[in-house]
């Protein structure tokens, strides 16, 4: 399993940051690996809402459908996507911190089937991808330099 944990402080309110990041179709705006992102269905994001993302990873285009599995605005939102080769879990939490909103993004990626053999290499590739996404996310949120990140 590969994990990337990052913390960003943004001048947005928790409500604004949560609304923006709960709409996972916005990932195409801040994650350079996402080549296509769209919401499936109508209405605002809520528990059970789904988003189809196509991302470039390890030299391939990968399509995943993410489902909101936790929705507690403006405190947290979680997404899960699963395919025959990968499970992706993303949890984003929001809280007040020194006049800003602290956004904590916890992403986990687990390979399935025969691909589990390359799991040790996954962390390196996933870390690079996540660091590039963090730069875009920081810009989208009008954020300060990240308070901390670990791969």
Task: Walk me through this protein's architecture.
The protein is of the alpha+beta class. It has helices at residues 14-22, 27-30, 119-140; strands spanning 2-10, 34-40, 50-57, 60-72, 76-82, 86-97, 100-111, 148-150. The protein has an eight-stranded antiparallel sheet. Strand 3 and strand 4 (60-72) form a beta hairpin. It starts with a strand and ends with a strand.
Number of strands: 8
Q: Runs with pLDDT <50, length 5+?
A: 146-151
Number of helices: 3
The end-to-end distance, rounded to whole angstroms, is 11 Å
Write the layout of secondary structure elements.
Elements: E1 2-10, H1 14-22, H2 27-30, E2 34-40, E3 50-57, E4 60-72, E5 76-82, E6 86-97, E7 100-111, H3 119-140, E8 148-150
Which key terms come to mind for this protein?
globular; eight-stranded antiparallel sheet; 47% strand; alpha+beta; 23% helix; Alpha-D-Glucose-1,6-Bisphosphate, Chain A, domain 4; disordered C terminus; 3 helices; 151 residues
Briefly characterize the structure.
The protein has 151 residues and is an alpha+beta fold.
